[in-house]
Each structure stands twice: as C-alpha cells, then as structure tokens.
Amino acid sequence: MKATPKKVVLCGGARTPIGHLGRSLAGFLPEDLMEIALRGAFQKSSLYPHAVDGVLVGWVGQGSHAPNIARVTALKAGLPVKSHAFTIQANCVSSLETVASAYRHIVMGEGDVYLAGGAESMSNFPYAIRGPRSHKKLRSLATLKEEWNTLWSDGEVNISDTTEEGLTDPIEKINMAATAEICAQMYSISREAQDKYAFASYQKGLAAEKSGFYATHVVPVVKDRKTLLEKDEYPFLREGLVEKPRMLEKAPLIFDGPSYSIMDFYRDNGRYIQGKEYVEGKTKGTVTLFNACARSDGAAVVIVCSEERAKDLGLEILAEIDSWGFWGTNPAYMGISPAFATSVALERAGLKFEDVDHIELHEAFAAACLSIFRVGKEKFRQDWDVANERGIINPNGGTLSLGHPLAATGVRLLLNLLYAMKLDPNAHHGLATACASGGLGGAMILKKYGV
Length: 451
Prior knowledge:
The protein is an alpha+beta fold. Helix content is about 35%, strand content about 20%. Strands 1, 2, 3, 4, 5, 12, 13, 14, 15 and 16 form a ten-stranded mixed β-sheet that branches. The protein has a two-stranded antiparallel ribbon with strand order 6-7. Strands 8-9 form a two-stranded antiparallel ribbon. It is globular, with a radius of gyration of 22 Å.
C-alpha cells in the first residue's frame, strides 16, 4: 500500500450537550451518548450511513460492557455492517488522535469517509475489585459475594475508585490537579490570575450558550420522547459565578487546607517544582475547584472525508486538515504539553503562531493554560497573551466553563473551531490543542476551506 496525496477535509459534525457528573446524563452509558452523537452527525449534514467507511472512537474509561465501543456504536447507530471500527485510548487527546488516524486511513486508500470522535461517561466510571482469580475469594462471582465482607481487609485484593485511579499518573504517582499546582508554583501563577482566567471562560461560555452558538452542532439528549438535556449543563450551574465573580475567591484550595497544607504539597511534590522552595508564611496554594475543569459526560463526532468524496456526497466542507503534532512531556508537567505539540504542528504546516486566527485550547486547569502562555512564549515565541487579548482563544468558552468529558474533548475543541471559523469571514487558520494525563499533548491545525 502507498500513500496518495489528497486533501482531507472536515465536514462538520455533532455532539451531545455536556452533562455534569452525576446529573442529567448520568443514566446514559458512553455507547448511548456516542450513538446520539453519530445520529446527530447525520441529522446535521447530508451524509447517509451507507457512505461511511469507518468509525473511530476515543474512550478513556474503557469497560467490558462495550468492547470496542466504536464497533458497538456504529452498529447501534445503523451504520453498514461492513464499516471498519476501532477504539483509541490516548487519555484527553484520544479524539484528536481519532481524527489524525482517519486522515491516515484516507491517504492510504482504505476509505474516503470516516466518523471520528470520542465519548465519556464519568458518571459511570466503576469501582474495581482487583486480584488474581487464583485467589480463593475471587474464583467466581458467587464466591466473591460470599466473601464480600472480608475482601476489604485482604492484602491480596484491591478495591478502588477507577475515577481517582484513572486521574492519577501511575509513573510519577501524581494526580492531575497536583500537576496544575506544580505548574502554578513553578511558574509563579497566582490564584488571582487563575480565577480571572476561569471567570473569563465562564463568562464567554455562558454568553455563547445564550446566543445560540452551540445550536449549530449540539443535538439534544432525548429519552422516551422527553428531552433530558438540550444545552451544556455546567455553564448554567455556574451562572452565579458570572453574576457574582467574587464567589471564586471563596472556593477552598485543593492543596492548602487544614488536612493537607501547601507545606505538605511541597514535601510530596517539591522535587518537581524547579527553582522554587517552600517559604513559611509566603508560599500559598492556588488551585481550586472553580479554576479547575469539571468532571463530565458527553460525546462528540466530526465527519472526516477526502475532498473529492465530500463533494460527491454534497457535504458542506468547513475546513481542510493542514497538520497536527503530538508531543510528550514528563507526566508531572502534563499541562504545558500543548505548547510543545503546537510548535510541532506549526512547523509541519509552515506557519508561525501569529498566523493562526482562532485557537481552541483545552482548559484542564487555569494554571495549566497560564503556564502554557509562559512556556510557549519563552521557548517557542508563541505569544499566547497577545492572542488572548485579541479574543481569539476560546471565544465561546472553554473546558473550564463547558466541562470535560475526557475522550470527547478533542473533537469538542475541533467543533468549536470549525463553527467559529465559519462565522468569521476573515479566518484562515485555526488551532485546536490539548494536554492529556501521562504528559501527552496534541495539536491540530485547520485551514478554512476555500480561502
């Protein structure tokens, strides 16, 4: 097989509203949400199921109830049995990788039309019982039930919350919120600066919801003819923060409280905080629940096609995929990885940072975003501060305001980018970039079609 040069384009897509953990979408498994997104892509375009050559789905919280969720959801959504389907796990850049993978399939001649996206139901992350089945208490489900009361004290059995486990890096033994505090301490990012950034995200997100921006590609979640969620949930749950921004000041610090102080944080993580030491009475914690992203449920999909086939099908072509880049950093500094991935993507596209007209930046934590601003400028001459002042970064709100359904976020960023560029007659190039647990970063550059 040989690669054939061809334009690969994006023809819109769809996503579910993003539900807050344990709320409106908690009763939906990720395959249910992905099916809604897939059907929404057909609803929002002229694409019909039999034209699809394959489905690629990112899923972080993979479980045995939907092995190869891409295949499961493809069949649930009525796609042809012949369609290829596979599932990708690259943490929070999973669905960016599905789009890059779809591109590779197209240029290699394996197909011309792919649905690429991601799904997550953090509300349904399970609790896990781990241990060898050779252990007499774990030989069968019946035995496990009989021995349930003794499992907790059995040294050969581990019972864990997969949410907390999954948000903790197994190499550096550090959770994601701690990586944000490390960046904040190392780059001297104050709590006030983080709260200011978070407030702007909340403000922009709520305004976009109310203006109808998201109606272009968000499809409602309906069950038994009843609409359960029509718009993203989190912006309206935090509407009070937009009306009363001083509420952000009242949020408790995650790593600076009575049970765990910032001194304790430095004791446990000080080896990562280069150039800084704990100073009694001066060193303060900065990361709070309000300047960190929410745990969420949702699914998103984008239509990836060869230009020729898109025209044959009468699809609306919004953008061409210009380039992408993935880059790994130490897991303790995972939040700054987008600066590195962006540099790779820009170099491959032959562009400079200032050539980009729209930017969608994953806001895992305000501290991470502001650290990217610092690192990007110092290391790669990426002036994120100027871009932010120009209003081209997350103009319709970001992850802080909308929520973070892990594997769906990458394509959520691309959908924001596609429809923002569509509305801007002067747009030429757009960037979507995200960090991910494990230190991975991903960036994708789109060129507006027809310019």
